[in-house]
Write a structure and sequence with these properties.
The protein has 2 domains: 155 residues, Rossmann fold, CATH 3.40.50; 154 residues, Rossmann fold. The strands form 2 sheets. It has a 4-stranded parallel β-sheet with strand order 2-1-3-4, with helices on both faces. The protein has 11 helices and 8 strands.
Length: 340
């Protein structure tokens, strides 16, 4: 029997201060996320960030929480259910979250009857703080709970045509009645030093804040380059002219330089250029969550409208849209065929 393990970032169990504090401690204690000295990281997370950030983060989660719970969890469960119906009884689909519940370990346990497991890190673009930490945790869980399983991990799919077409399909549906001046593609940010090319003077796009021209063979897992590759592919699929879209990076934390341009500052620059009607999509997220609904859909929207913008539209993520379910199924089928 085959198994499919859908893996996403995770979410607090509840929109309460204790639950958010627990979640932040686990999330920010990951050395891939805050890559400093372990003792310094423990002190920073447990004595400063978790105690003082939890109340503020809880209020943000409460804005997006629904009667069913966390949006990210709801969309992931719906994706699981739809994919399960598509693959049939011979394949079992489970969920594992890198942080919080259900854990990756619990997902592996759910698939103990499966001889072969296809892991799906639900991150289109590769980053150590997303894809690699998931793969490390998965390896740990497999060794502990299912050491005899054959495990295959779906590679990053940042310009896979199935993913691009599904995202374009959802985007088109929400742009049909919106006459935009500009389309902004906002991706989750990352500290500059976590990019493999950060200190390579032959690759100056990061330092000069210019678009990465392509994914270079020397750095096949450059997150920033993946984001620009996704953006170009989406713009082509949506027939958006080059001067009508741009790329930015959100959710920066702390004083360490993160990859630029920053979304909040870039929106200000778009206003200065005369953009009045802005559409925003978040292609690094496959499921709507705090970062898309609250940060982009509320905070950035308010900043844009208060700054003189006239209309603003957040495009939903692909979530459990039928186009995405079919695309993911096709991606897995193609990936499995490539292994034989």
């Amino acid at each position: 029997m085959k198994g499919i393990l859908l893996i996403n970032l995770g979410t607090p169990d509840e929109a309460t201060v204790p639950a958010v504090r627990r979640y932040l401690r686990e999330f920010l204690s990951d050395p891939y996320v805050i890559d400093i000295n372990p003792i310094s990281r423990w002190l920073l997370v447990n004595l400063i960030i978790a105690p003082f950030r939890s109340p503020k983060s809880t209020k943000a989660y409460q804005k997006v929480w629904t009667d069913e719970g966390s949006p990210l969890m709801i969309h992931t469960v719906h994706l699981q259910e739809k994919l399960q119906a598509l693959v049939g009884e011979e394949t079992k689909v489970a969920i594992g979250m890198r942080y919080g519940n259900p854990s990756i370990a619990s997902g592996v346990k759910d698939l103990r009857d499966c001889d072969e497991i296809f892991a799906v890190p639900l991150y289109p673009q590769y980053a150590g703080a997303t894809t690699q930490t998931v793969l490390d945790k998965l390896d740990e869980a497999i060794k502990a709970h299912h050491p005899n399983a054959r495990v295959h991990s779906l590679p990053p799919f940042y310009e896979d045509h199935h993913y691009i077409n599904a995202t374009a399909s959802v985007t088109k549906a929400h742009l049909q009645d919106f006459d935009y001046d500009h389309v902004l593609m906002s991706y989750h940010g990352l500290p500059v030093h976590q990019l493999p090319c950060a200190h390579d003077t032959n690759h100056e796009c990061v330092q000069k804040q210019t678009p990465c021209p392509k994914v270079f063979d020397t750095y096949p897992n450059c997150y920033r380059a993946h984001c620009y590759a996704t953006s170009r592919a989406l713009a082509e699929a949506l027939n958006i002219p080059e001067d009508k879209f741009s790329v930015s990076f959100q959710s920066r934390l702390g004083k360490t330089p993160w990859i630029q341009p920053y979304t909040d500052e870039h929106v200000e620059a778009l206003l200065e250029k005369g953009v009045k009607r802005l559409a925003v999509l978040c292609p690094s997220f496959v499921a709507d969550c705090l970062e898309t609904i609250e940060e982009i859909g509320m905070e950035v929207r308010d900043e844009f409208l208060e700054g003189g913008g006239e209309a603003y539209r957040l495009i939903p993520c692909i979530n459990s849209d039928d186009a995405w379910v079919s695309a993911l199924h096709e991606m897995l089928t193609t990936f499995e065929a490539s292994l034989s």
